[in-house]
């Protein structure tokens, strides 16, 4: 085929795709349903200010946990006993989000049961036995529908148009 015929065909395909996708719309009900389905993923990211103590043996961790339960100062014990790089800062990792460490760390540090000012139980990680303390939380606020409405609508419109294009391409491939 000549370049002119190829160009004509490409223009026809573009026009067809444009005609198919321009008719696509998203209703407010669809936006609201999507928001309600995925609102947990639409929260702003949560960060937590965590302190850690990392020791090589479970017994050392148990001894430290007992001292903490008896009122020992976490930062002081971290400076004296922890082998992590944060020890010099009293175990303070600052505000971190999920995914900065390893899965078990995230499970403990971001647990709903770990309250501000409280200490975790002992858990094993790649560098030894860990004890964490939650100093503060920020973020994690639920965004309202009105805050994310346009973003959700844009995403739904994109997904619907993509589906129409896929359907059209499947239909065209079956006729050839």
Write up what this structure looks like:
This protein is of the alpha+beta class. It is 51% helix and 17% strand. The protein has helices at 3-22, 28-38, 58-69, 74-81, 103-109, 145-175, and strands at 46-55, 92-96, 123-125, 128-139. It has a 4-stranded antiparallel sheet with strand order 2-1-4-3. Strand 3 (123-125) and strand 4 (128-139) form a beta hairpin. Helix 1 (3-22) crosses helix 6 (145-175) and helix 2 crosses helix 6 (145-175). The model has no long low-confidence stretch (mean pLDDT 89).
Supply the key terms:
6 helices, alpha+beta, four-stranded antiparallel sheet, 4 strands, 17% strand, elongated, 176 residues
Topology:
Blueprint: H1 3-22, H2 28-38, E1 46-55, H3 58-69, H4 74-81, E2 92-96, H5 103-109, E3 123-125, E4 128-139, H6 145-175
Antiparallel strand pairs: 1-2, 1-4, 3-4
Helix pairs in contact: 1-6, 2-6
Strand fraction equals 15-25%
Per DSSP, the total helix count is 6
Low-pLDDT runs: none
Q: Any idea what the shape is?
A: elongated
What average pLDDT do the residues reach? Answer: 89
Radius of gyration of CA atoms, rounded to a whole number: 27 Å
* Total strands: 4
Largest sheet: 4 strands, antiparallel
| H-E string | HHEHHEHEEH
Strand order of the largest sheet: 2-1-4-3
**In whole angstroms, how far apart are the ends?**
17 Å
Helix content: 40-55%
In a few lines, what is going on in this structure?
The chain has 176 residues and is α+β, with helices and mostly antiparallel strands. It has helices at 3-22, 28-38, 58-69, 74-81, 103-109, 145-175; strands at residues 46-55, 92-96, 123-125, 128-139. Strands 2-1-4-3 form a four-stranded antiparallel β-sheet.
């Amino acid at each position: 085929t000549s370049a002119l015929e190829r160009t004509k065909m490409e223009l026809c395909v573009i026009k067809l795709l444009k005609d198919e996708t321009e008719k696509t719309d998203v209703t407010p009900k669809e936006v609201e349903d999507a928001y309600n389905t995925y609102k947990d993923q639409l929260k702003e990211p949560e960060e937590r200010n965590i302190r850690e103590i990392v020791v090589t043996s479970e017994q050392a961790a148990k001894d430290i946990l007992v001292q903490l339960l008896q009122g020992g100062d976490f930062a002081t014990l971290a400076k004296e006993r922890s082998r992590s790089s944060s020890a010099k800062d009293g175990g303070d990792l600052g505000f971190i989000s999920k995914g900065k460490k390893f899965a078990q760390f995230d499970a403990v540090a971001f647990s709903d049961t770990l309250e501000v000012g409280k200490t975790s139980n002992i858990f094993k990680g790649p560098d030894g036995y860990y004890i964490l303390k939650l100093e503060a939380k920020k973020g994690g606020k639920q965004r309202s529908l009105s805050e994310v409405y346009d973003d959700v609508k844009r995403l739904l419109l994109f997904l619907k148009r993509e589906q129409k294009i896929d359907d059209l391409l499947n239909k065209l491939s079956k006729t050839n």
